[in-house]
Amino acid sequence: MFIAQKLYLKLKRKYIISFLAIVMLLLFGGTAYTLNSQIGRIDSVDVRQGEYSKHSYYSPVKDEFISPQEIISNPEQTTGGDPGFRRFFGTSPNAPDFELPKYDLTKKDFSEKPSAYAAYWLGHSSAIIELDGYRILIDPVFDNAGPLPVIAKRMSVSPLQREEMPDIDIVLITHDHYDHLEKETIAFLADKDIQFIAPLAVGARMKGWGVPKDKITELGWDEIATHGTLSITAAPTVHYSGRSYNDRNKTLWASYVIKGKNKNLYWSGDTGYSEHFKEIGRKYGPFDLAFIEIDGWNKGWPNTHLFPEEVIDACRDLNTRLLFPIHFSTFDLALHPWDESIAIVADLAAENNLEIITPVMGEKVIPGITPTTRWWISP
Ligand SMILES: [Zn+2]
Fold first, then answer.
1. Which residues lie closer than 8 Å to 81 by C-beta, 6 or more apart?
2. How far does the centroid of ligand 1 lie from the alpha carbon of residue 84, in Å?
């Protein structure tokens, strides 16, 4: 009896251990699978070296795309707290302490035929631009900005949910960072009648998530894609790319000049300040409107994003009539209060007689006509 009981307990323990091992394996396997699929595919070295070596901004030796300015990292000069990756797992201490105003959008809020000229900012760098009766969806991100749901949580819910998107003509992607390129959204749109425009080598990610090759237009800097009356030109930015530990700069990043029949717009993408703004202003300006990234700056990474003063300098260099600030209010990327950048940029714009448009998230505006407010000031 005693021996039988001992044997039973031994077997039970064995089964429990095996069961736990299987659960652990499944969990680990599931997480690895999710991670892998979120990262997405990239081209092979041979494809990159074969196709991109003709560009001055691709180094076949390093097998990397090259920023017009080397990206500087000064960890010891970081302000605002610990810059380590750990911070992306928690709740941000810099998040707003009141609910941000926003217009929650549903399909019904969009006209069947897109306007001749209008814009909806959807938080951070996601937006819809309507131009010449076409609808362009830029860097659509509706959830968090990391490869797993627990990483880089949103500070506010998106005013538009993926399922409520209206019909889209063009999806425009600036680069493959998680706060600009969201796998679920690309997969959701993959079978729709849409032209996907992205910088060189980003197409492999989208193909991996189900977008047919013939729907993807990849652009190098100063290359143009057309869509009806629109012409969309990719232009340089000082930045970098990557979604994993081993794919830095294997894909290109870009800003865009979006030209319609009567309007000439600029979308900054992510960028540090450099001569490229003057050159883009000379080549493609003047602009009726420039969407410029304003948040994410830190002395620890001084040329990955624009400092507020540089936002104003960039507008001057580009020769734009109107500034539309983007890349704020949604993710805490740079260890400063969520509203610091927009407050400074709005004051600087006023001091410099630069017209600025600051709609709340989800609001439809006709730039230059619809009045907007300083909605970030707590009620
Ligand atoms: Zn970025």
1. 87, 93, 335
2. 17
Q: What is the distance between the alpha carbons of residues 26 and 61, in angstroms, rounded to a whole number?
A: 40
Gap from CA of 109 to ligand 1 centroid (Å):
30
Percent of the chain at pLDDT exceeding 90: 74
60-77, pLDDT tens digit by residue?
Answer: 999 999 999 999 998 888
- Cα–Cα–Cα angle for 195, 67, 151, nearest 5°? 70
Distance between Cα 270 and ligand 1 center (Å): 5
Alpha-carbon distance of 251 to 15, in angstroms, equals 47
Asked if 176 and 242 touch (Cβ cutoff 8 Å), the reply is yes
Compute the distance from residue 164 Cα to the ligand 1 centre, in Å: 26
Q: Residue 349 C-alpha to ligand 1 middle, in angstroms?
A: 24
Residue 257 has pLDDT above 70, yes or no: yes
Summarised one tens digit per residue, pLDDT across range 190-205 is 999 999 999 999 999 9
